[in-house]
Each structure stands twice: as C-alpha cells, then as structure tokens.
Amino acid sequence: MSPMIADATAVAARATVPTTPKPTLEITEETSLADILRAREAGLGIRDVAPFFKQALHHFQSVGQNLYGRTLLGPSDAEAVVEYPYDDAQRDMIILASNNYLGLTNHPRVIRAAQDAAALYGCGSGSSPLLVGSFPVTKELESKLAELKGAEEACVFATGYSANVGVISAVAGKDDVVILDRLAHASMVDGAKLSGAQMKVFHHNDAAHLDRVLERNRNARTKLVAVEGIYSMDGDVAPLDQIWQVVKRHDALLLVDEAHSTGVLGPGGRGAAAYFGLEGEIDLHVGTLSKAIGACGGFVAGNSDLVTYIRYFARSGMFSTAPSPMVMAAASAAIDVIRDEPERREKLWENCRFLHSELKRLGFKTSAAPSPVIPVIVGNMKGLREMTLELHRNNICVNSVPFPAVAHGSERLRISLTANHTREQLKRALDCLVQAGKNAGIV
Fold it and tell me: What was the pLDDT predicted at 8?
C-alpha cells in the first residue's frame, strides 16, 4: 500500500470512529468533591475541571454554604474569634472543630518551651533530619515519645501524614502486602500505594475478616496490618486485643496509628495499646504531635531495629526539612503536662460522655460510644450544608464532612471536644444543634 493510500485510509478510519462526549458538570445542591473526582476519572482534564471547581466554590460561598477556610484570630481553644470573608464582622464562636483535645496549644508551659527553644536554636531546623536538622530538643522529644509508647526508640517527622506515608512505604515493598482497615486514614492508603506492595482491605474493626484476609495472603513476604487507635471520622476504638491476636497468629507486623488516641486513651494517656494492656507488643506506633500534644509533627515508635531502618529509608523524612526545634520543644513540654495534669484527660472524657449522651437522648444519629470525636450523621449534602451554615450563624464552629471523605449517605458533622469546653458552652451548642437538626429534618 502506498503512503498516500495508507494516509487516506487512516483519515477515513478516524472519521468513522465515534468520539465519546465529554462529561458535563452542573452545580446542584448535592454537588461535592466527589463530582470533581468522577469528572477526572471520566476523562475531563484539569483545564476543564479547575475552572468549574472554582465556580462551584464561588457559588456556595455566595450563598454562605462553603464554610471551609475560616480563620482563627487567636489560639485554637474551646472558644475563639473567627474571621470569615463572607461575614460582615468577626465572630466569637464555640469551637467544636479542633483536635486540641487537652487544650495544650496555648498552655503556658508549652508556649514558654517554644519561646525558649526559638531563642536558643532559631525558628527553623534548616536541614533534613539525617543531615544537620536535629537538635537536643529533638532527641529529648524522641526519648519521651518512646517512653510514652513503651517502645525502644522513636523518630519524629514533619507531620503525622508524612509519618504514615514514610513508615508504610519504607517497611513494605514488592512481594509484600499491606492490609488496612476499611476506614483507614488517607495517609495510610497513600503510604501503601507508594510502597509498591499489594494493598488489601478488611471490614471495619472485624478481626475475623482480618483473619481470612491474612490467610488468603499467607505467602506474602511481609504482611503489614495497619489500624487506628481511635478512628478519625467515627470516633470508635479499634479492638486491638482481638486484632493483635490475629496478627500474631499469622506472623504479621501490626502498625497502630495513634493520632487520636495519644494523650487521650489508656493509663497516663499512653494510647490504645496501653488501654488494651498491649504495651511493648505493638510493632509500630505512628502518631501526630498536632492533636492532644498540641504542637505539630508526627512520629513513629517501635523496636530500635525497625525505627533505625525507617530513619534512613522513609522518603518523607529523608527528603523533607526536619521539624522546627521550637515545635519539638513545645511537644516535649506538652508530654510533661500530660503526665503532670491528668485532670485534663478526666475533664475531656467527662465532656465526651455528657455531649454524647445528650445527642443520643435528643434523637441524633451518632456513634455507639463516647469519644473526643463524635459524629452527627446528616446523610445528604443539602442538609449538611444547611446545618453547618445555621450553626455558623449561631456562632457554633463545627466540621462539615461530605462524601467522598465518608461514605455516601453518611455525610456528617464531626464534633471534636476538648478539656477546655465548659458545660455552659456544650449546652449552648446542643440547643443550636437541635434547632438546626429540626430545620434539616434529621431530628
């Protein structure tokens, strides 16, 4: 066939192949981030999706239903002054949207430690951890974290997210399997993807199903099971005693993400492993310094061999600037406060039990048991946006969690409690929640 005939044939063939129409995007009351993700998967490019997304944001902002990006004008506490561009004035709001569980972000000892470290070492670390990014306060904090977790050694990261990504991708690899609870945090999922290992999922908090998944993957070189101590969206506690037995039976490694349980759960606030009497039995504790510890950063604790390996092979640590020395000092001081002021943890749980029992009594759909994370299930985007806006106008700041961050039909308000909340603040919040719930038709 001549080149001319071949070219003509190719042109004719292209002309007869039907083109798939691009998906269309339309702003409705149910529009969410999921629509953007589906559009990308259906073939729309970033040049099509980004302008629509910005237009959708402007629409929901104009009607007061995009309340992300509110700015605190003071410490993250039980009550704070909040600025939002679409309000006429600043608002003094009850904050039910902070993970500052023990109220340590502005504790005098924590602030003073950060100030002293900044004066002595400066604000930034200036280098990666393995080069010259570590300071005496870094080593002091790692020692305290290891002791808190009943482990041989600990290593800090710049964030909790980078800790999970770095640890999982360093420990697992080709021919390995990472097995995650179905509700595992995005950082665990991303770490598993980066590792190159197979990724499997077991039913939420279901040790029997985990047993079956491990049995099906018994030939994997390394089997890493990853769960959370307290789950970030449902607020429930993993049955670590059951999970640990299954993991050991299959000679697997167990990673527990203690982001929401460190400082909160177990004797001395030592976390979920301590709560279940499993100190010294967990292979890897991963956690954050940004919640009950009131600073910023992440960590891993475990036996010295594993932690040393992770220091050198966790890419999110190796190729990132080390955490600030003043932040390390603040976290170190916060651990001392957790030890010296157990009444903070007691007050936190008193608040959790009160609010949870009242929500149940008032007819809200929520979690089975109290914890510092209490979901209020709304079940649809329209109701979620309406409730969040009404609460905002009544000076109650609460997190709005849409699909796909949670399953479709379980869109929710995510309440986070602290030790600093007063009973009066919680009663005021409950009154506003009831009215908003009635208006949205969920109570």
Answer: 47
Catalytic residue among 144, 200, 260, 356: 260
262 lies in some domain: yes
- C-alpha R_g of the chain: 24
Q: Active-site residue 185, yes or no?
A: yes
State whether 87 and 127 are in the same domain: no
**Do residues 231 and 283 both lie within one domain?**
yes
Q: Which residue is catalytic, options 291, 356, 392, 421? A: 291
Query: What would the pLDDT profile of 332-347 be if each residue is shown by its tens digit?
Result: 999 999 999 999 999 9
The CA distance from 359 to 412, in Å, is 14
- Examine the domain organization and report whether 274 and 357 are in the same domain: no
232 is catalytic: yes
Q: Would residue 26 show up in a list of annotated catalytic residues for this protein?
A: no
Identify whether 33 is part of a domain: no
Q: Is the pLDDT of residue 167 over 50?
A: yes
User: Annotated catalytic, 257?
Assistant: yes
Q: 408 catalytic, yes or no?
A: no
> How confident is residue 1, by pLDDT bands cut at 50, 70 and 90?
very low
Exactly one of 32, 66, 98, 99 is catalytic; which is it? 99
- What lies within 8 Å, CB to CB, of 2 at 6+ separation is none
Split into its structural domains, the chain has a count of: 2
Q: What is the span of the domain harbouring residue 403?
A: 71-96+342-440
Reply yes or no on whether 58 is catalytic: no
Contact (CB, 8 A) for 228 and 185: yes
